[in-house]
Design brief:
3 copies of one chain form a homotrimer.
Chain A lengths: L2 H9 L16 E4 L2 E4 L22 H23 L4 E12 L7 H16 L10 E7 L8 E9 L2
Parallel strand pairs in A: 3-4
Antiparallel strand pairs in A: 1-2, 2-5, 3-5
Helix pairs in contact in A: 2-3
Chain lengths: 157, 157, 157
């Protein structure tokens, strides 16, 4: 039994299918002991559940949920490549938040991704879901997505 | 004979000289099995061929060509540091697209970089030119460049 | 005696305490031979010394000083995790500059971070403070910070 899948099951989280890349690239790449994911949009079954910017059409609470979906899509990409039980540590998360002028709560949005990682990995990894992170407010994102999240994880040798 | 230079020659691509950094940094750094490039502007012989934002002064097709030049400049930086034949896999591409409000086709722009990598490396590397990628729309770029691309590659030990 | 602390002392630089993360993440993570820092704001004793955008409320010279503080905060995060004497090379710096329309001197701002790295590490590391770098102009940053800087360093095995 996979420890991570067991945890996901306890949490009632179904790992989505890997989102189709928006261009000529792949969802994730293994390089040495690292897996790098592509920037993940909050796609659900191939559809973006919301469009627009924080500080305009999208509320922080809604975007927090979208960032969680981005992280889940990143985990799906990692799982398809190496299996989530190969993950030894979460290394880095970068969160891009489409931000209208005056919106400065990017960290509150990207906490949606970070909290998912804690739920999934705390107690399973030596460092739990802990990771370094940057969160920035960008002008526009692909398909008018409010959020995009990319991730680097360390895997077993 | 270098396999990559042979391929470039067949493609009619001349590797440019390494672009002069816009600040106090270097074009690329080797660290363990990785080479990280600096963010590359689409400089041609030290001159930016276009300035402005997508969704305003710059068309997607033109920016697609500029992203290709950025990727070529990144390859030049890698070549000068370790030689392109040392490259084992392309790991990650990040594309920053200067975006006016309402422009959301960043992936179509950054495909210019990704497609160049496929042309150069498909058939030469086990994973071809495949890479993870993020593409985001930023407010402004250095020198009013429409595009900036950075890259991580894996090299021989 | 720590070589880096000795250098800092000669430069009259006091390493700050590690800035409290703005969300559910950690200041830095070790992964293999790398340390990744989180995006660092120019916090001084937990307070942001300036807010606003380049090209509007904030001058380039002031932001150059803020980028230096960001880099110092990144070094503090690395020091707390592995000790600065473990650093073998600076690999990558990414600088995010909150930019009003028409501001394109992001490299001049992020030079504040790069120059600090040269001051601290030149003569101490084989490659000095040299690093790859990307500098981009984003729409908004957390807490209306003018600058955010993240860093990757290589450490002893």
């Amino acid at each position: 039994m996979s420890a991570v899948r067991d945890r996901l099951s306890v949490l009632g989280i179904v790992l989505p299918s890997v989102a189709v890349p928006a261009g000529v690239y792949v969802p994730a790449v293994r390089a040495g002991q690292f897996v790098y994911t592509s920037g993940q949009l909050p796609m659900v079954d191939g559809v973006l559940p919301a469009r627009g910017k924080l500080g305009a059409e999208i509320e922080t609470a809604a975007a927090h949920g979208l960032a969680r979906i981005c992280a889940l899509n990143a985990l799906a990409a990692i799982d398809a490549l190496v299996g989530l039980d190969a993950v030894v540590a979460i290394v880095k998360v970068v969160g891009f938040v489409a931000s209208a002028p005056g919106f400065n709560a990017q960290p509150a949005v990207i906490n949606g991704a970070s909290e998912l990682l804690a739920e999934v990995f705390d107690g399973l990894l030596a460092t739990g879901g802990a990771h370094a992170r940057s969160a920035v407010g960008v002008a526009e994102l692909p398909a008018n997505s409010p959020v995009e999240v990319e991730m680097i994880v360390l895997i077993k040798e």
